[in-house]
Amino acid sequence: MSLVHIPAEEKRRVLEELADVKELFAARNWFPGTSGNLSLRVGEMDGDRFHFAITASGKDKSKRTPEDFLIVDQEGRPAETTGLKPSAETLIHCEIYRLTGCGAVFHVHTVFNNLISEYYGEQGAVPLQGIELIKAFNIWEENAAIAVPVLPNYADISAIAKLVPGVLNEQVPGILLRNHGIYAWGRDTFEAKKHLEAFEFMFETVYRSLLLNK
Description:
Residues 16-207 form the Class II aldolase/adducin N-terminal domain. By secondary structure, this protein is an alpha+beta fold. It has a single domain, classed as Class II aldolase/adducin N-terminal domain (L-fuculose-1-phosphate Aldolase, 3-Layer(aba) Sandwich). The protein has helices at 8-27, 90-100, 111-119, 157-161, 164-167, 189-212; strands at 37-46, 49-55, 69-73, 104-108, 125-129, 145-151, 174-177, 181-186. Strands 3-2-1-4-8-7-6-5 form an eight-stranded mixed β-sheet, with helices on both faces. Strand 7 (174-177) and strand 8 (181-186) form a beta hairpin. Helix 3 (111-119) packs across helix 6 (189-212). It starts with 7 loop residues before the first helix and ends with a helix.
């Protein structure tokens, strides 16, 4: 265990921010059956060394308790003495932080991101074009087009994490796991939330468009 000392005020701020986001997303039913995970970086990155707070495994995310989160290091190992277990998907968070230097990573399971990731799974990406909310990613071209990567949903999380560097696009702050859920990130909680909400709106739009065009 790589222990770290985090000032009490900084830790309190981080955990309160995460708790507020968790409460908001839980109210939208984005964490069915204890699924999903949220993380927020603590302090600055020092090369490949960094720490972040992440949701503890197996917790009811509709509840707010003192044991909802723990601090881990860049390898996903607990960085404080705790009996809590990090989310099973912590290694994917580690890769996203390492590759992007972002400040927050949010992962949710919704009906629309599951359906869309499965529909486009064989293509390896979800095409999005001409949808207003692409502007949420600071992309302003007329009729802009992006592609959201879709990775296979292996039971071995480390195998998924190894695929992240090969598909990550700095202009598209999100990655889907097929028939599973999305990871969206940003510089802080506000930006990560904005990006996640934009993706979810667009996935629902694409799904409903496919139904209309049948």
